Model the fold of this input.
Amino acid sequence: MGFMSARSFRQIATSAGESYLNKRQTMRDKIEELSEKASKRGAELQEKYNTYYDEEKANINNFKTIATLAGEEYVPALNSFVGTDATKLKIFNNVSAEGIRKELDKYKNVDTKTNFIEQSSENISKKKEELDSTLLNEFKIPPATASFFTKGIAEKGMQEIRQSSTGNITEGEAIDTNFTAGPGMGTDSFVSLKNFSGNIDYFYNTLQTPRTNNAGLLVKNDDGSQVYDIAAGQEGTVARIKEQAKTIIENGFEGSLDEAIANVIEKGNNQNYDLPSLTTAAEGSPIDVELTGYFNQFKEAKNATSMQGIIDELKERGLMDKANTLQMELDSFVKTINDEPVVAQEETTTSNIIPSLDTVPQGRVRKEVVADTLTAEDKIKNSNTFVTEDFISQVREKNNVSRDKAIDILKLYGYTQFAIKEKVNPRTGR
Done:
């Protein structure tokens, strides 16, 4: 075979050079294309990170808001309740501080090391690492793609892509995990777990103590309830707490007897504590239903006097709307029966209870209250009972008061019908 001509050699060299240049340009074009794709993909993943960050930050802020409402005491229970599932926080949307505490009371004994704020902050950091890694792994040139002549261009190009477009998800503002909830909102209207336990312990183990027999066994009543011995000098206090606890339940307090007792004691310890059911009944409350039922019974019996007594009782309970409605009904009822006499049955008093007063602390002063526990039914029965002069005298003697004061005491017990004391003519002595 002969030697290649110079011309042929030049043609081959030129062809090879052009091929070399073409391959390098092709690689540059590919790198530029990859760079554009990487930049676009980077923007997509950045948006994904931003969305995740905003959601987690919103969940953390919501957690802080709920914790601030409930108070620092309830943060462990809130962590137990939520765990790592932020969707559980939605249950507290538009819920009062008291409602939040009542729900979290169910989780007071749950032991957990979960810290929602710290966990959410850590999840945000992990999300950035995850998306950074995703972007880096998606934009790699397979070794076979780059030849000897283009390897340098490929490596330099990919390095530039990584530096400019990948592994650089912009992290959101750092979240402060050092959070303290504070005392909680509306603490003047809510008995905390700590205070609740303390109040109950005070009532059952200080004001009174469980009775035991000689064998050290607890003494029970016939119904199975515990028998207590009241501490000396605390009889009036125990009776008052029981009476007020019964009153707030009648007035619509939604809770057990022990919860009612705890609330009454809290009110006694803190005059700023809000306990509206102590003085005002709610519409539809047990006492509202009960008194309305008695009103209808007295109406059927055409007993206008007792009907008026029910209306007065409703007013005392703060049920003014109901009282006004029934007052109009009573007025209309009286008109319909024209001149037909409507009088209460005159019964002589047969009660073994001689009404008397007790004094209880009310802030810096003491307030007079009835010494006996009375139900609404008792008061209604008393309102339908004629009080004799002899019974008035017994009340006067027991309380060492005047006749007028004795009648005032009787009124507190629900009595409305009294004997009229005959006036003595100073001239005749009759």
Summary: The two ends are 170 Å apart (CA to CA). The longest strand covers residues 357-362. DSSP finds 14 helices and six strands in the chain. Confidence is low (pLDDT under 50) at residues 141-150, 342-348, 423-430.
